[in-house]
Amino acid sequence: MMNFVWLLAVETAEAVEEGGGLFDLDATLPLMAVQFVLLAVALNALFYKPLGKVLDERDGYISSNQVDAAERLAKAEQIAKQYQQELAETRRQAQAVIAEAQEEAQKIAAQTVSTAQQEAQAQREQVQRELDEQKNQAMATLEQQVDGLSQQILDKLLGSLAA
């Protein structure tokens, strides 16, 4: 092909030398048009089609990746929304469990305090009964001692009066 182009260039140069004008309307103009068309066809087949094919493939790849990324983003947003709803529900359940546990703890604390107060009252009453019993025993012992001492005093007073 290069030889063909070289021959055309040589013939064109000869034709220009013979005619002497810049715009001779001989076989040069159609020959140049044919050369231009052949060059355009050759460039299209060798460079532009493969380059266009690569660009189309790349465009298709980018488009598919954009669609895939959009789908993944939508799915991720949906999953995030679902997790947020589940988290909110779990928080509500946790708060309900905490409230129930606090209520139960208060009941247990109140029951424990009540039981402790009853036990303390029972111990106070037991101690009071023991103190009353000891007091009564002490009074009975004192009365016996007072009676014995009174008898001795009487015996001494009567014995000193009789003597």
From TrEMBL:
Keywords: ATP synthesis, CF(0), Coiled coil, Hydrogen ion transport, Ion transport, Membrane, Thylakoid, Transmembrane, Transmembrane helix, Transport
Cellular component terms per the entry's GO annotation: endomembrane system; plasma membrane-derived thylakoid membrane; proton-transporting ATP synthase complex
Keyword Transmembrane in annotation: yes
Membrane-spanning intervals of the chain: 31-48
Location of this chain's protein in the cell: Cellular thylakoid membrane; Endomembrane system
UniProt key word Membrane: yes
Coiled coil spans: 66-152
Topology versus the membrane: Single-pass membrane protein
Major place of residence: membrane
Alphabetized Pfam families for the sequence: ATP-synt_B
GO molecular function: proton-transporting ATP synthase activity, rotational mechanism; proton-transporting ATPase activity, rotational mechanism
Highest rank taxon of the organism: Bacteria
Signal peptide interval: none
Subunit structure: F-type ATPases have 2 components, F(1) - the catalytic core - and F(0) - the membrane proton channel. F(1) has five subunits: alpha(3), beta(3), gamma(1), delta(1), epsilon(1). F(0) has four main subunits: a(1), b(1), b'(1) and c(10-14). The alpha and beta chains form an alternating ring which encloses part of the gamma chain. F(1) is attached to F(0) by a central stalk formed by the gamma and epsilon chains, while a peripheral stalk is formed by the delta, b and b' chains.
Recorded family membership: Belongs to the ATPase B chain family.
Biological function: F(1)F(0) ATP synthase produces ATP from ADP in the presence of a proton or sodium gradient. F-type ATPases consist of two structural domains, F(1) containing the extramembraneous catalytic core and F(0) containing the membrane proton channel, linked together by a central stalk and a peripheral stalk. During catalysis, ATP synthesis in the catalytic domain of F(1) is coupled via a rotary mechanism of the central stalk subunits to proton translocation.
Protein name, as recorded: ATP synthase subunit b'
